[in-house]
Amino acid sequence: MMYSTRNSVPFIIAFLFCFLIIGCESNFKEVQKMGFAEFSPSGDAEGINLKYTDSGRITANLISPKMLDYATVEFPFVEFPKGIHLTLYDKNGKETYIDAKYAVQHKATNIIDLQDAVKISNQNGEMLETEQLYYDQKNEWFFTEKKFKFTSPKGVSYGEGIDFSKDFKKVNSQKISGELQSE
């Protein structure tokens, strides 16, 4: 019995093609992995209590159960995956309190992104609650485009979109509703 080479060519090509596909599959997964950079923190701390000072005066106190520092990535940031409690002090010693279940501090912009059940309050009985709030550390300014609830001794108001100074003295709100007592 004789076999024709002409009939074997398609069989050989199909066999080689299957062999290449099977052989390259494991290499393909390794090549995919090479495309992803390792993304792990360069610093990891638990139970932190940081005090920031300026000319010997405490300006802020940050407390968090966990901090991850990504200082070696292209856009460095610090992550607080288990939330923060931040107390800001003005030059007269008045305090502003900030709580959030999650936060990220972007080092290049000095902006802190506060997320999930964010509450900011002060000693005057004013409190703002929202799901996301940004804090510009350099300008000491807060802002959000999310819905918020603002409570003060004068009443309660609701809105969407607000920006304000850390002491609530300057407030710019967008869509707002509620009842406030006039002075």
TrEMBL record:
Q: Which gene encodes it?
A: lptC
Q: Which residues cross the membrane?
A: none
Extract the GO molecular function terms from the UniProt entry.
lipopolysaccharide transmembrane transporter activity
Source organism lineage?
A: Bacteria, Pseudomonadati, Bacteroidota, Flavobacteriia, Flavobacteriales
Q: What Gene Ontology cellular-component terms does the record carry?
A: plasma membrane
Q: What Pfam families does UniProt report for this protein, alphabetically?
A: LptC
Identify the species of origin: Flavobacterium sangjuense
Q: What is this protein called?
A: Lipopolysaccharide export system protein LptC
